[in-house]
Amino acid sequence: MASANTNKLQVAICGAGIGGLTFALALSRFPDIDINIYEGARALTEVGAGIGIFPRPWKIIKMLGLEADLLKVTETKVVNGPVSVFQYRKSDQHEGIEFYTLVTEGSLILFHRADYQQTLLNHLPKRCQTHCSKRLRSYVQRQSGPIELLFEDGTTALCDVLVGADGLKSVVRAGVLGEKAQRSRSEGRWQEAADILKHVEPVWSGTNAYRALIPVQKLRTIAPNHRILNTPGVQYLGKQGYIIAYRISGGQLINFVAFVIQHKLENTKFNGPWMSTVEPSAFSTSFAHWEPDVQALIACVEKPMQWAIHTVRPMQSFVSGRVALLGDAAHSMTPHQGSGAGQALEDACILATVLGHPSTNRSNVAHRALRVYDNIRCPFAYKVMQVSRANGRHLTLELDEGVPVDLDSLPPKQQWDYLQRLGNTVVKNWEWAWTTSIDTSLKEALHMLESQV
Ligand SMILES: Cc1cc2nc3c(=O)[nH]c(=O)nc-3n(C[C@H](O)[C@H](O)[C@H](O)COP(=O)(O)OP(=O)(O)OC[C@H]3O[C@@H](n4cnc5c(N)ncnc54)[C@H](O)[C@@H]3O)c2cc1C
Fold it and tell me: How far is the CA of 185 from the centre of ligand 1 (A)?
C-alpha cells in the first residue's frame, strides 16, 4: 500500500469512473505528484450506454491529448461552426410534429462509454497505479500528518490529498460532510450541522431512465425509413417524459434512453433498486400512444436497464481540509443537459491544474489550491445542476415550472408558437455548453492562486 513519506505530494483518488480516470490523467502531467487510484470494483468496466461531450468539456479532451484517439471511435462528424445536434419532436400523439432543431456552435461528440473509458486507460501512464477491489470504507484526517484511508478489506493506505471521485453514493462525501458538521457542532451551530448532513444521502429526481443499445440493423429491418438512421440525434418529447436516440460505435448501435418523469415526486425516496434490468413493458406503457417512430424504437429494445435518477442536493463546498470531491460525488445532477460527465471533466482539469501548480505543497494545499478549486467549481457546477433540472421541465413540454399547458387543446398556431418559445428557452438555457470556454475558468483559477501569497 502507498505511504506518504516521500517528498512528492501523494494524491489518492477514490473511484476510477470517468471523473477519477480523467483527473488521474490530468494530474499525471505533473511529475512531482504520486498518484494512486483506488477502485471498489474488481475490474474497470463502464455501463453499456452512450455519452455525449459538448464543445466546452471537449476542449479538456484536447488538452489531455485524447482527441485523435477518441475521434476514431465516434460516429460524430466533428464540425467547428454551427451544427444541428438534435431534432425536437412533439411525439405524444398519433402523428408527431417536428418543431425545432438544436443548433450548437461545435459538435456534441457522441461515444460508447466503454470506448471513452478504454481511451482514457490507454493514455494513463504506468506511474498512475490503479488498485481494484479497494472499496474505501472511511478516512481519518487530522490537523497535520497524512490522511489515513481504511478499506473494506481491512487494509489501509496513506496520502496527503484525498480526492473523492466515488460517484453518487460517495463515501468520501459522507466523510467531508461529517467533518463539516462536526466543525459546526463544535461552534454551537446545531441547525447548520443538521442541514449539512442532509446532503449525504442522494434524493430521487422523480425520473426513471430506461437505457438500451439497439443494433442499427435491427431497426433498419423493421423501419427502413426511420429518421434515426439519417439524423444525428432526435429527442421525442411529451408531457410524461421524453426519449433520446442517437447513433454510436461507428454507426452500428443506437443509444436509446427513455425518461419517465413525475416532477411532483422530485426529492422523494425511491422504493426499489436504483439500477436493475427490467422488461420493456416497465416503460413502454408510458409511451403507448406516441408516434410510430417511437413505437419502432421501443419494439427493438430488449432487457433495458432501469436507472432511478438520483441527485445530490446542491452543496456549498466540495472541500474539507485536504479532501476534495469531484464528479458525481460532488454534484450528481439530472442528465437532462447531458453534462454530468462534462462537469466531472471540468473538475478534473481545474483540480489537477491547481494541485500541479509549482507553488502548491503539502502544507499550503488545503488553504490555497483546494480553496481555489472549491471557489471556481462549486458555483459553476451548481448552476449546471439548476439548468439541467430546468431542462427536464422543458423537455416535458413545460415552459414555466409548475405551469402545465394543455397543448393538445390549443389552436395549431398557438401550439406552434408555444413550441417555438420552448425550443428557444432550451437553447438559451443550454448554450453555456458551447458558447463559453473552460479557458475562462482556468485563467480565473490561476489568477486566484497566483494572487495569494
Ligand atoms: C441516463 C444518463 C445519461 C447521461 N448522459 C450523459 C451525457 O451524455 N453526457 C455527460 O456529460 N454526462 C451524462 N450523464 C452523467 C454521467 O454519466 C455522470 O455524471 C458520470 O458518469 C459521473 O462520473 P464519475 O466518475 O463522477 O462517477 P461514476 O461513473 O459513478 O464513478 C464512480 C466510481 O467510483 C467507484 N466507487 C464507488 N464507491 C467507491 C468506494 N467506496 N471505494 C472505491 N471506489 C468506489 C465506482 O465503482 C465507480 O467506478 C448521464 C447520466 C445518466 C444517468
Answer: 32
